[in-house]
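Why do we care about 3D structure at all? Because function follows from shape, and shape follows, mostly, from sequence. That is the central idea of this module. The next example makes it concrete: a single protein chain, its amino acid sequence, and then its structure expressed as tokens.
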Amino acid sequence: MSLSKRRFIKIAIVLISFILTLSTVLTGEYFFKSEKIELGSVATKRYIAPREIENTYATERKKEEVRKNIEPLYKEDSKVKEDALSKLELLFTKVQEARMYVEEGNADNYSSNPEGDIINEENLVQEEESREERMERAIELLKAQSPILLLDQQFKALIEMESGSIKELKNKCIDVLESTYDMGIREETKTKTILDVKSQFETFHTNEEINNLGYDIVASLIQPNNFIDEIATNKMIEERLKQVEPVMILQGQKIVDEGEIITEEIYSILDSLGFIQKEFKEEAIKYVGVVLLICLLQIFIYIYIWFFNRSIIHSLRKTLLLFSIYCLIILIIRSMTPLHFAWIPIPIAGMLLAVLVDVRIGIIINGYLAIIGALINKEGIDFLMFFIIVGTIFPILVTNIYKRSRILWMGFVAGIINGITLMSIEFFLIGEYSVEIIYSGYYGILSGILAVIITAGSLPFWEVAFDLVTPIKLMELTNPDQHLLKRLLIEAPGTYHHSLIVANLAETAAADIGANSLLARVGGYYHDIGKLAYPQYFKENQMMENPHDYLEPTVSASILKQHIENGLKIAAEYKLPKPVRNIIEQHHGTSRIQYFYYKALKDSSPDEVKKEDFTYQGVIPKTKEAAVVMLADTVEAAVRSMDPQNKNKEECEKLIRKLIKDKLDEGQLNDSDLTIKDLETIVQAFMKVFNGMHHERVKYPEKEEKKNEHFDRKQRFSTKRESKKHNKGSHHTSA
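And the structure:
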């Protein structure tokens, strides 16, 4: 397919997904078919609630009734009482000073006049002053210094009162004042409290003048000491209001019947449900907002894919897969609007993409679908919280499913998570226990199990339709009971064991560099299945003589090169996944068959030898996994052919580094995205595997036996001859 055609398809996919998303949102509950309805008009038909909604008017009425019946909380200010008692004490102190001045002409206790000047005997008290003059001056000074405002005759009465009477009056005033403040005084009860004070003084068996004087003194000191505690009162009101259950209009409930008046309350309900047609300006703004929101979300998705999952953009299959899953889930969301949102299978998209593409893109797409689903169904924060939480956990959960037998167990775990999440959100939002929440938990468990089962059950369809591979499929391919692996074991046992070692090397290296270790392992198992066509032409399968000893180098090279083409034919026959077929095609790249090339140069002139006759006509590795299998294949054959006398750790590592450097210099790794750091990690991984294979063992003691010297000499000669023959042919026939 041409580049322009692929680009056209991708642009069409973006536009179609945008149009589909916009159309589903515009036909959802946020853009429900509306009519022109006026407040106070007569309903032309019966209106039924399409979904459950709160009657905010009725709820607010209930709350208002609660507010009216709540008595405010008060707090006492003790400083008011203390201040009143201090003023009372100061009054009688000043009265006593005035009495002493009037009776004895002593001004020592008078510290200041009304203007604040110091009073002394030079400027205030004269020897020739009369008692009446001192009385007048004392009253003036007492009026200025007293904290309580009284009449002149009342001050005069206090000054002229006998010591016992004034002491009795003071005690009565203190008793009445304390008892009154102890009962608590509010602003609204101040007048009543003053009247109560008068009644208390009337109960005393003294003359009326003294009682009235005491009443006037105490009454002037009466101030509110109990004030409304705004914080505590508001807190109590909030707690009481939280207990008010909202008045709900259930799905299918009648809102208003034909012929009834559209009241303000009914109008509000119809407006909330989207029945009332808005002004063009309001509707236009809403449409613009939705279009911009969808555009921003899709741009975000594209940017994320470009920076973190660019392989989706480069792969038309993955692009079509993403588009297909997205469209399917969008349509399902739109069709399942009447049901409880827990049944909407939004997490299925995230799980499928996590298994088929990448777990991160699965989580991102799930979040995108959760937002779109909330727009379609006009759901609130509970909808978003639920699907973002489970849509993040489920993709991570299903990536650990490597066997179809574990699907039921993972489904059960997902169901439990689903149910607990749903109940937790509803407990948080509602704030109280109810049986409906428990039922929601049951629904969540069932929907979670069903989502995982649907995801796992549909995987074969997606695998076949888009030629993709899943961890489950890869694990199935590693089963030794696979027919192709059994054939390899029986028909080409040497290649089979070689493939096992290559698989171990590739898996370990891929895991260390962060590549798909399972794919690398499967690629190692099947990379040489093309040798099944002519197994006897490959050294590891030869039991007797080497047929290449009788063939021209070009013919031998041609036979070796054919195992790539034959491998692809067998892979197609057995329906191996595309990534595995790519590894088969790329594991030799465009490298040269060195042994037969140099043999041809030795047997013929250089002009007669064509390099392309001894070069694999394949494709250089395009992925890290394919590159790792290429290196593992090369290294395994070379290490196996090493002289046993020289096969130590240092020489082995030296050989591995040389072989990898050769592949790098040849340009075989240019398209694999491997870094220099990755290559060093691969060397260490290979050495880790080889060290485990060739570790030293304890030599067991042998019984002392008399040996036949002739037989022993013959065995040594035979072993030496076989070793030379092995070293002669192993370098060129283990391709």
